[in-house]
Design a protein that fits this description.
mainly alpha; two-stranded antiparallel ribbon
Amino acid sequence: MLERLKKSIADDNELNSETLRLLSLMFLFISGAMSFLSYTHIGLLWDTSLTFKPGIISTLFAVFLISPLYLRGILKWSKSIYSIFSLLLILLVFASFAELALGGNGKSQFTFPLLVASIVISWLGIKAIAGISWILTLIAAIMALILNNIAMGFYGFVYIAAGFVGLILHSGVTPGEFLSGISSEYSGASRNAIEKAKSDFDSLNKII
C-alpha cells in the first residue's frame, strides 16, 4: 500500500483529461463554496467578521472580468455540460473575489462608493478626475483585501489556492502562462488608468 501511494504521488505520468476536468470542478467548487461561509477573527480589542457571498454588483464585475479571458482562449468553452458547470463555478469564484475587493459583508464603507463614483465620472466624461478616481478605487480595494485577510487567516490561502488550481486545470496551461495571459489582458487597462491619473495630476497642478 505504501509503495502504491508513493508511486501515485511521485509518478510523472500526466493525468487524463477526464480526471483533470473533475479535479478542476472540485477545486473551483471548494473555492466558490467558501464564499458562503462566515469568518471571524478574535482580536485583542475587537473581533473582525467577514462574509463575501456574491451579489448583483460583484457578479456583473465577474462577467466583465472573465469574458475577455474566454475571448482570448485562456478559459475554455464548448457546448458541453462540463463547460457550463465550469462557467458557473468560475463566475462564482471571480464574483466572490470581487465581493472581497468591494469590502465584503454585503457592503463597503469606502470601495463601493468610490467604485460607483468612478463609473459615473467616466461615463460623464469628466477627464480631469476620472483617472484619479480609479486609482483611489484600486487603493481602497487593496486595503479591503488586506483587512479581509485578517478575518480569513489560513482559510484565505485555501480559498485562493483552490481557485487558482481549479483555473489552471481548466485552462490547461502552466501557472506562468496563465498569469501571463491575465497580465496581458488586464495590464493595458491598468497602464491606461495610471497614465490617465498622471495626466490628471498634471492638469490639477496647472490649475493650482
